[in-house]
Write a structure and sequence with these properties.
With 126 residues, this protein is mainly alpha-helical. It has two domains: 28 residues; 93 residues, Cytochrome C3, CATH 3.90.10.10. Strands 1-2 form a two-stranded antiparallel ribbon. The longest helix is centred in the N-terminal third of the chain and has 22 residues. The protein is globular, with a radius of gyration of 20 Å. It binds heme C (4 copies). One heme C (HEC) binds next to helix 4.
Length: 126
């Protein structure tokens, strides 16, 4: 009888583990692959962004980019806070937020001898 609570805990963990996995795998919450990033009224071609490249191959943590989300499974779009033109609550406009996030890391990688797109038309691909 004294083992029982333990068994219950194990069942709970198994159940919760599955719940979590299936939750993560559900098509609804998985970002598109790649996401085609394009701001409203954009003049240049959209920029493809791949979570597979960055998260699985690059091992970059969610919070590096989703920097205001503790639980990145349902992150807010960058544009929720980074508006098209104005600075809101200290959040720079969207174009600057994207350029700073994407380009800073890519430049650091190129400086270390890795390949990552840094030219305009490597990201804004026709
Ligand atoms: C590392 C990837 C990357 C590189 C390199 C890059 N951009 Fe962007 N840029 C983005 C992303 C992401 C956005 C936001 C989504 C969009 O609208 O394209 C953006 C948005 C823009 C926008 C506003 C939207 C539009 O199309 O009018 C302009 C203008 C722009 N970039 C110009 C440039 C220029 C000029 C260069 C080269 C000097 C450049 N970018 C290099 C990723 C990049
Ligand atoms: C290198 C940067 C980067 C990393 C690392 C990253 N993401 Fe993202 N993620 C983005 C960008 C950019 C978008 C597009 C956001 C937008 O549309 O404003 C996005 C979008 C998403 C979306 C879709 C949001 C929507 O409403 O369409 C989900 C879900 C998501 N990311 C989850 C994750 C999770 C979970 C991780 C970690 C395992 C992660 N991301 C790691 C940059 C990143
Ligand atoms: C909940 C609101 C919110 C969301 C969502 C958000 N940001 Fe931010 N971001 C901010 C605020 C506010 C700042 C100002 C500094 C701070 O408070 O961290 C900022 C700062 C930044 C900076 C530094 C800018 C600079 O010039 O120093 C970058 C880069 C950035 N965000 C990129 C992103 C990207 C890319 C995404 C989406 C993957 C994103 N942010 C999502 C609110 C947000
Ligand atoms: C913290 C570092 C980091 C950030 C932030 C980052 N990248 Fe990257 N990115 C990389 C590295 C490293 C590679 C090279 C990966 C490889 O080829 O294995 C890469 C490759 C790419 C590629 C070419 C490979 C592919 O998947 O098509 C594109 C396009 C790209 N990044 C777009 C973006 C955009 C757009 C953003 C901003 C929303 C961004 N990246 C933010 C590190 C980063």
């Amino acid at each position: 009888m004294r083992r029982k609570p333990c068994v219950v805990v194990v069942y709970f963990l198994i159940f919760f583990g599955f719940f979590h996995l299936s939750n993560f795998a559900s098509a609804q919450k998985k970002p598109a692959e790649p996401i085609m990033l394009t701001l409203e009224g954009a003049k240049l071609p959209p920029v493809p962004f791949s979570h597979t490249t960055h998260v699985e191959k690059g091992k970059i943590e969610c919070v590096t980019c989703h920097h205001k989300d503790k639980d990145a499974k349902e992150p807010q779009a960058c544009g929720t806070c980074h508006l098209l033109k104005e600075v809101k609550d200290n959040a720079v406009p969207a174009k600057d937020a994207f350029h700073k996030n994407c380009q800073t890391c890519h430049k650091e990688n190129v400086a270390k001898g890795n390949a990552a797109p840094v030219k305009c038309n490597e990201c804004h691909k026709k």
